[in-house]
User: Fold this.
Amino acid sequence: MARTDILYIGTNTKMYMNIYQTVDFLTKLHELTKDISRDQIKLFVNPSYTALAAARKSVPKESITIGAQNMCWEKQGQFTGEISPLMLKEVGVEIVQIGHGERRTIFKETDEEENRKVLCALKHGLTPLLCIGETREQKEKKIADEILRIQLKIGLNQVTPEQSKKVLIAYEPLWAIGVEGTPASKEYADERHKVIKEALVEIFGKTYGKDIPVLYGGSVNNQNAAELISMPHIDGLYIGRSAWDAENFNKIIRLVLPIFIKRRKTRETGAML
Ligand code: 13P
Assistant:
């Protein structure tokens, strides 16, 4: 089964939930979704560092994958305040988000730094979820596609096709993220996903590039989730605010999964004809 045949759906809890809240959220989410076959979806939650160990222990790893929101590009050393991939692995983390828009804009992380983190994550057996996206200004100047291609080409520099089997991409336009954000239209998001997928094929070749899941993130909610997932180049959703209530997250999952499965079946039938 190709990776893009599975619905990748996850949430980044940003700097909101403490340990108790994270465990409570995960426990509820697990209970609410445990009847859904994990052959159909890859459900993941990326909590704050301090909640990672308790998060991992609170629910089965087959049910919900735990990810971190960031990490250092070295495994150890004189990097005060940083967290190593080995430390993440020690507490059972499998995914690591790299280059979130808030890291790039507020903390001024560069594509070169994201690249070092991606390579380090892969080296230590973690799945990097590389986040890319243009700013509002870049969108207005109509250079979004060029920006996305640069972010991919630098962010994934020196990643081998074989290693790309572990990579995940999230397209999160900066102007669409968070309370100030306006969600991208399904057409706009799909056009950017198409560009991203073409760039991935260019970087890794058709066999590998085509099978890297590209998730959309940025003001996903109960109103737009279904139409976003119905688009041909959107493989999954990466959600903030609308997913932080387990019941609502469960609703969104159940809303989008049948659409995703139908889309996959149509694709399979098309391929057989
Ligand atoms: P929102 O869904 O709250 O806009 O956040 C998206 C996000 O930043 C996921 O990483």
